[in-house]
Design goal:
alpha+beta; 2 domains; 3-stranded mixed beta sheet; 3-stranded antiparallel beta sheet; 3 helices; about 15% helix; about 25% strand
Length: about 190
């Protein structure tokens, strides 16, 4: 059995709020480098008929722990979570939570692992094209809507609204939405 690893991914404030509210149980990240059909990719030949890429190339496998990195802000000499203003550490005897940086805001990508307050065991890791996301996966990405899907087996206007909202959210984070972009999907929700 493989040793459990901790992986830490940066998240936007919006994503952290969705995680805290229990709405976000998946995240997608672009593969680097992008695989090309018929060409070697990390010692793997990409076959157009068999797109089951080894999940070990993602840096994580089911059972590994996903740590959520979020932006921090300065509050005097202490660090606070940028999403909700909560202090990083209420333990006055610990130096975890003391502000150690020159800037007043620390982006999520630089958040120290010890400051992670959300950690989840991964239940599924898979490769897929960004355009292959399903509408239930869009909801698992944390999107909120003021309506219910009345019949999940038919295509209706609500489902198209969900996909459109997902594309918009992806573009806000990554700048462009390319349906042919290969991504790793990390899932920590119940299955």
């Amino acid at each position: 059995m493989a040793e459990v690893k901790n992986i830490y991914l940066p998240f936007t404030d919006w994503s952290v709020r969705a995680i805290a509210e229990g709405r976000k149980t998946q995240t997608r990240r672009p593969m680097k480098p992008q695989p090309v059909l018929g060409k070697p990719w990390k010692d793997w030949i990409i076959d157009p008929n068999e797109m089951d890429l080894p999940t070990s190339y993602s840096g994580a496998i089911p059972g590994d722990i996903l740590g959520v990195r979020e932006a921090l802000v300065r509050g005097g000499d202490c660090a606070f979570y940028g999403t909700d203003g909560q202090p990083v550490n209420d333990d006055l005897d610990s130096d975890v939570g003391l502000w150690k940086w020159k800037r007043d805001v620390l982006p999520s990508i630089f958040m120290p692992h010890a400051y992670c307050r959300y950690k989840f065991p991964l239940v599924r890791v898979r490769a897929e094209k960004l355009g292959d996301i399903t509408w239930p996966d869009c909801l698992a990405e944390g999107l909120e809507f003021p309506f219910e899907i009345t019949n999940p087996n038919i295509f209706n206007i609500e489902k198209f609204a969900i996909w459109d909202a997902w594309e918009t959210k992806w573009e806000e984070i990554y700048g462009t939405h390319d349906p042919d972009l290969w991504v790793w999907c990390y899932d920590w929700g119940e299955r």
